[in-house]
Design brief:
Two copies of one chain form a homodimer. Chain A is of the alpha/beta class. Chain A has two domains: 126 residues, P-loop containing nucleotide triphosphate hydrolases (Rossmann fold); 61 residues, Guanylate Kinase phosphate binding domain (2-Layer Sandwich), CATH 3.30.63. Chain A has eight helices and eight strands; from the N terminus they run E-H-E-E-H-E-E-H-E-H-E-H-H-E-H-H. Chain A has a four-stranded parallel β-sheet, with helices on both faces. In chain A, helix 1 packs across helix 7. The longest helix of chain A is centred in the last third of the chain and has 17 residues. Chain A starts with 5 loop residues before the first strand and ends with a helix.
């Protein structure tokens, strides 16, 4: 059984991560991993379906025992991917796609070095600024904050395996599907290729 | 100007290299490099079009000065690719595809480490044997020699970047086109991505 891939997709605000991800989902089947969170369930949310709703104590225990593949905090609550669940899917040959921030991506790489890290970028910083300001939905202060955050994010760029420039969503999705396809042929993923070839 | 790729395709007898290469040529444009040779021109062959016809002394001089990307001997004559010509095409953004033996591939990697080495294999050694014997055009002795040669060739497998199994030509060509596509997004091919992004 050939293992699946753990694909990590990151990108600054305005890179179009969400749109690209939706396009990828249309074109290829990815496994879906239920996130764990410490926030309470909202009306209609089911435990272990929408989220694994767990206590802060349980979540922090998982972090300490390196049982989280990645996690982040938002509005005072933890959100993250349980390592054992993700690896089970990968062992079963499924590809898992995680859309996460740079810090989380570094954690994934540390905990699971075989992960494939892809950074999605707008064609240029100037274009990113144009996109963010062009939306007209956020204040200048918020837009400036996001642009400043991009400088931080770009410091992590050398740790990524691939960089994809988002000129248009279709081309981007094709780039990423090619990366997934090619990675499955990478020699480092076939350490026993010789023995396997000779049927040993 | 983004550089092109130097793709090296190797594979044992019965791997279907020639057919896969022809299929690739149909689907994507590759630059074509005129080989140098020490054999004399045949009727109708033009110098610098079909081959660069050069003397043995000139060829061996090029080998000593590391001006050959790869070379081999056949029927007592040298055949090979002149490094400067190949690199000129790559610098101009073109992809160059070389179908060469494992020893030549190792030379390419040494002289031009950015080369992408792809090993094409039949699905298994048993299947390779079936294919070679099934042709019925060569003697048992020749087939046995080719199978024995495969053991030598497989020793080089760990030095290749990708392994592609030839179940069918179409799927193989798709694998290789994905590899080319993905390699162009590889972070190590974009060492100045950050500066470039910020327009510096």
């Amino acid at each position: 059984m050939e293992k699946g891939l753990l694909i990590v997709l990151s990108g600054p605000s305005g890179s179009g991560k969400g749109t690209v991800r939706a396009e990828l989902m249309k074109k290829e089947h990815f496994a879906f991993s239920v996130s764990a969170t410490t926030r309470g369930p909202r009306e209609g949310e089911r435990n272990d379906v929408d989220y694994h709703f767990i206590t802060r104590e349980a979540f922090e225990g998982k972090i300490q025992r390196e049982e989280m593949l990645e996690y982040t905090t938002y509005n005072g609550n933890y959100y993250g991917t349980v390592k054992s669940e993700a690896l089970e899917m990968i062992e079963a040959g499924k590809n898992l796609l995680l859309e996460i921030e740079v810090e989380g991506a570094m954690n994934v790489k540390r905990v699971y070095p075989e992960a494939v890290l892809i950074m999605l970028l707008p064609p240029s910083f100037a274009e990113q600024e144009r996109r963010l300001r062009g939306r007209g939905t956020e204040s200048d202060e918020i837009v400036n904050g996001r642009l400043a955050r991009t400088y931080e994010e770009m410091e992590y760029l050398p740790h990524y395996d691939y960089v994809v420039y988002n000129e248009n969503v279709d081309a981007c999705a094709e780039d990423i599907l090619s990366i997934i396809h090619a990675e499955r042929c990478a020699m480092r993923r076939h350490p026993n290729a010789k023995e396997h070839y000779f049927g040993q």
